[in-house]
């Protein structure tokens, strides 16, 4: 089959690699002059920052991608993925804080007990409730293509529950700080917990069970490795080529319209926000993107506080520091995110939390949510949760148009590096090997 993949972010790269390995003739079109999308790096004056994600949960998703399309990930990296001892440090308005470790139930009990006696057990009781949730999601949604018209009983029960994450956290925690920790990942992606199904809180179970992992040299290494993989597999890559629309004839996709004409296809993988393609826009008209945060990539000189990979300041605005960038000798590269009522410069807001780096900034790249979405042709935060039915409005791996498939943060099984990588696996399963 001749397949066109639209979008050169993680989902597009992973889809193209898997489909080419399966024997298909693959063409990847990317509107930007470079590949990578939100996974690409941002560089300025010798400083480099990850564009979006700085770590991943469930590393098996990336390992499976590389193993199923060629050499194992660790062989390509020349080393192992690096586990984070502390995934996130949470600082609260009462000046208390907790450092949450990953991959260990006992370590999390100890960490939360330092926040207050008995809070460790309270935390793990909540997290434990998600073990069966993950099994249902893994079996029927994350690792196998799903059909919204034919849903297994246990997945149907999960997806139709009316309980929101907001209600679950209020029910499970007597201490509001634990609720802030449990909901922070979803809030950081731009969602209102009152509109999010309770099962989405499974991310805390994934942190505890599998930990969080970084790529030596930054997440953009994945872009380099997958780009090389596409070359090895004979994928035709057309950068600077925007897909204008899908050409549909008799209910089936026949071509992809680009500026220079049409590319005839047997199938298409849409790895960008499907609302950007007029043929798909009516299908997803009820969805909205979950917008990225305000972002400031800062290059610093001099002594700065010794912080873990991520620090969250629970306030309004919500502020997040990510410390994993690379810098010249004597420098430090941080990324600062902001959400909420940001009526001042984000570094001024950060200074009120007793971290004042304003005099140490030597270079800075500020990006608004709109600029990020335009740069990436979609939001890495995926589809905004608007209630339990949102999961059915999200496309993927199949779509109502025959021959059109969907991958990426806007598709099933959702946003986040492991799920975006897995969306490509679902598409490859749905299409099958070349005949």
How would you portray this structure in words?
The protein has helices at about 10-20, 60-70, 75, 105-115, 120-130, 130-140, 155-160, 165-170, 175-190, 200-210, 220-230, 345-350, 370-375, 390-395, 415-430, and strands spanning about 1-5, 25-30, 40-45, 45-50, 80-85, 85-90, 95-100, 215, 235-240, 245-250, 250-260, 260-265, 265-270, 295-300, 310-315, 320, 330-340, 360-365, 405. By secondary structure, it is of the alpha/beta class. The chain has three domains: about 1-40 and about 60-75 and about 220-285 and about 385-430, FAD/NAD(P)-binding domain, CATH 3.50.50; about 110-200, no CATH class; about 295-375. The strands form five sheets. Strands 7-6-15-16-17-14-18 form a seven-stranded mixed β-sheet. A five-stranded parallel β-sheet has the order 9-2-1-13-19, covered by helices on one side. The radius of gyration is 21 Å and the shape is globular. The model has no long low-confidence stretch (mean pLDDT about 95).
Sum up the structure in keywords.
435 residues; 15 helices; single chain; five-stranded parallel sheet; alpha/beta
The number of helical runs is 15
Coarse morphology? globular
Q: Could you say what the CATH topology of the largest domain is called?
A: FAD/NAD(P)-binding domain
- Class of the largest domain, according to the CATH hierarchy? Alpha Beta
CATH homologous superfamily name of the largest domain?
A: FAD/NAD(P)-binding domain
Q: Report the average pLDDT across residues.
A: 96
Strand content: 15-25%
Proportion in helices: 25-40%
List the domain count as a whole number. Answer: 3
Write down how many β-strands occur, each being a DSSP E stretch of 2 or more residues.
19
Strand order of the largest sheet: 7-6-15-16-17-14-18
Largest sheet: 7 strands, mixed
Instruction: State the end-to-end distance.
Output: 8 Å
SS-derived structural category: alpha/beta
């Amino acid at each position: 089959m001749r397949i066109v993949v639209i979008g050169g972010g993680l989902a597009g790269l992973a889809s193209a690699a898997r489909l080419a390995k399966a024997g298909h003739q693959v063409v990847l079109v990317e509107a930007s002059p470079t590949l990578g999308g939100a996974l690409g790096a941002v560089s300025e004056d010798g400083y480099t920052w990850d564009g979006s994600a700085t770590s991943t949960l469930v590393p098996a998703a990336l390992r499976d991608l590389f193993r199923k399309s060629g050499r194992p990930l660790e062989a390509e990296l020349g080393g192992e993925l690096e586990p984070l001892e502390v995934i996130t440090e949470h600082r609260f308005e009462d000046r208390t804080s907790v450092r949450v470790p990953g991959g260990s139930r006992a370590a999390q009990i100890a960490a939360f007990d330092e926040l207050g006696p008995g809070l460790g057990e309270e935390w793990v009781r909540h997290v434990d409730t998600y073990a069966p949730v993950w099994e249902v999601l893994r079996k029927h949604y994350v690792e196998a293509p799903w059909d919204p018209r034919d849903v297994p009983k246990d997945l149907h029960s999960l997806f139709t529950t009316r309980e929101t994450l907001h209600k679950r956290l209020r029910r499970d925690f007597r201490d509001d700080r634990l609720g802030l920790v449990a909901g922070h990942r979803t809030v950081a992606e731009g969602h209102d917990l009152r509109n999010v199904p309770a099962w989405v809180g499974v991310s805390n179970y994934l942190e505890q069970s599998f930990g969080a992992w970084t790529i030596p040299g930054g997440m953009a290494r994945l872009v380099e490795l997958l780009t090389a993989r596409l070359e090895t597999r004979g994928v035709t890559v057309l950068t600077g080529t925007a897909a204008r629309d899908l050409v549909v004839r008799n209910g089936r996709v026949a071509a992809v319209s680009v500026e220079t004409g049409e590319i005839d296809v047997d199938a298409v993988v849409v790895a960008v926000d499907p609302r950007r393609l007029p043929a798909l826009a009516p299908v997803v008209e009820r969805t909205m993107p979950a917008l990225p945060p305000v972002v400031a990539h800062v290059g610093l000189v001099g002594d700065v506080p010794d912080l873990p990979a991520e620090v969250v300041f629970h306030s309004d605005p919500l502020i997040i520091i990510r410390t994993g960038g690379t810098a010249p000798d004597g420098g430090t590269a941080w990324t600062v995110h902001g959400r909420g009522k940001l009526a001042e410069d984000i570094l001024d807001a950060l200074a009120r939390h007793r971290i004042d780096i304003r005099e140490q900034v030597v270079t800075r790249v500020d990006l608004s949510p709109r600029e990020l979405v335009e740069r990436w042709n979609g939001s890495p935060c995926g589809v905004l949760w608007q209630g339990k039915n949102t999961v059915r409005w999200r496309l993927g791996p199949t779509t109502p148009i025959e021959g059109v498939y969907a991958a990426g943060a806007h598709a099933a099984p959702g946003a986040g590096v492991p799920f975006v990588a897995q969306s490509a696996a679902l598409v490859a399963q749905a299409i099958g090997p070349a005949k």
